[in-house]
Amino acid sequence: MSTTPISSPSSRSRGERRWWMFEKPHLERISAHSRDALLSRLSSINISVPPRGSERTTAHTETWSICRLLSTLAWEDKLDYPCVWCKDERPDYVLQLGEQHAGVEITEAVKVDLARTEVLPENDSDSVIDISLFKEQDKRKSLSELRHIASQSKLTGPGWVGDEADQEFARAISNRVERKTKKLNEDTFSRFDENWLVIYDNLALPGMNRNNAVDCLCRALVSYWGSNAFHRIFVESGELLIDLSRERLAVYNICDLWKSNGT
């Protein structure tokens, strides 16, 4: 296990595609040669994320996502070794897993207007923000509308009927997949043996039946998989990691190495 600058290889063999992580020797890499070494290294990383509006940065959320992804896949024995990863952009991370390389793009599924409302000064201890006022198909709200919503002390929205929250989850995640897939296919985005998308579910949907929500998501993505798609899509939702690809659906319990140390 090591934390060292990445050095350039002296040669490239047939079939190696965009040795991107080795072409940028200024980047730092983190590596582990076994499951136990990886879990130990991950547990030492601070993955705490400040509250929204309290100096939270993209680096905070990306560190959270990549570490919880790797800890869970390692715990489930779903990784090859050595496991090496480094941070950059387009995609956000690159992994070396044995002889293969995977680009990892990280994003968050969040209602932008809801996030804006939560940090407004009108949102005080008496406020009750009705999440049903922020549905995926809704138009963006003005600042005055958001201030009005933040000042309410009771629920005022349409609520959720039947499995509407499950359908909302599927719409929000699939829309995020669509937007990120456009980015994947831009000329400036590096592609690898595998390309992964990691989505943090921050939708805060009430009363969601997660099994049904995953079924809805699978149906929404049934025609997605192709040559221009991400090979694997991971969704961190609550304490579960959903692993979607053309070949499989798997759901794992998140391996939370940081629970005992408060991060």
Briefly say what this structure is:
Helix content is 28%, strand content 21%. With 263 residues, it is α+β, with helices and mostly antiparallel strands.
Describe this entry's structure for a reader:
The protein is an alpha+beta fold and 263 residues long. It has one domain. Helix content is 28%, strand content 21%. It contains 6 helices and 9 strands, in the order ββααβββαααβαβββ. It has a 9-stranded mixed beta sheet with strand order 1-2-3-4-5-6-7-8-9, sandwiched between helices. A hairpin with a 2-residue loop joins strand 7 and strand 8. The two termini are 22 Å apart. The N terminus is likely disordered.
Structural class: alpha+beta
N-to-C CA distance: 22 Å
Strand content: 15-25%
Q: What would the principal axes of the Cα set say about the shape?
A: globular
Number of strands: 9
Low-pLDDT parts are 1-21
Looking at how many chains there are and whether they match, the oligomeric state comes to single chain
- Sequence of strands across the biggest β-sheet: 1-2-3-4-5-6-7-8-9
Q: What's the average pLDDT?
A: 87
Topology:
Layout: E1 2-5, E2 28-32, H1 35-43, H2 58-75, E3 83-87, E4 93-97, E5 100-109, H3 112-118, H4 143-150, H5 164-184, E6 194-201, H6 210-220, E7 232-237, E8 240-245, E9 249-253
Parallel strand pairs: 5-6, 6-7
Antiparallel strand pairs: 1-2, 2-3, 3-4, 4-5, 7-8, 8-9
Helix pairs in contact: 1-2, 3-4, 5-6
